Amino acid sequence: MCFDNYITLGLLILQLLSEVHFKRVDAILELPRPRTIKCHLPYRLLPTQILQGKGKIIYTSRNHKDVVQSYYSVFLWGDYLHDETTDGYVDAFVQGNVPIGLWTDHVLSYWTNRNCINILLLKYEDTVKDMSGCVRKIANFLDRKLTDDDVIRITENCDVNRMRENPMTSLQYMKKYTVMREGVGTFINKGKAGYWREVLTPEMSAKIDTMKKPLEGTGLQYDFQ
């Protein structure tokens, strides 16, 4: 199954997740406070209340070369792109023809609002380098006090190998609802920054480098390891 239109693919995934993974707004309203809601929305599509300062936003991004290889791996695993080549997917990503749209638009939408008091921006690369430090930063942002034992327990549960073993973080439970390919792609990848070097060719890397221009002069930079 090869998709010429990645937006169509995104709508199909959204429909699947709405039916078997998410329980819509009513279920969210029933959750005890404080509620945690995960999404991939660009800043402009967030609920009005959040844009007006209600709640807190923790936004994690990573360098776009690792995003490409990770995204492609997930789509292969989910049996969405098994006829698509890596090079073809890179072209679609650079053009913004993927469910999240242009990576640059997405990250800059939060970066330009980084001084809002209810926003904490994190980079995946920094989290990998200093997970305990990031845990403490998040706790401080959420006005939570953590003991050293709390931090150790959290970092242990966030270890990539532990997450692979947990069906709720590895999304293995999704096999009950849809086809997930064995031995092709994965949801939990290598758990490190810079894996793109083992996947992308120099030509693919050069294509993705063309996306850096909108970041020039913004102060937003990424570590490509």
Please give the count of helices.
12
Strand order of the largest sheet: 1-2
CATH architecture: 3-Layer(aba) Sandwich
Instruction: Kindly state the percentage of residues in helix.
Output: 40-55%
Order of helices and strands: HHHEHHHEHHHHHH
Structural class comes to: mainly alpha
Protein topology:
Blueprint (H helix, E strand, L loop, with lengths): L5 H15 L3 H7 L17 H4 L5 E5 L2 H14 L8 H10 L7 H9 L7 E5 H6 L1 H11 L6 H10 L2 H6 L1 H4 L31 H8 L16
Parallel strand pairs: 1-2
Helix pairs in contact: 8-9
What do you see in this structure?
The structure is a single chain. 46% of the residues lie in helices and 4% in strands. With 225 residues, the protein is mainly alpha-helical. The protein has a single domain (6-215), classed as P-loop containing nucleotide triphosphate hydrolases (Rossmann fold). Helix 8 packs across helix 9. It starts with 5 loop residues before the first helix and ends in a 16-residue tail after the last helix.
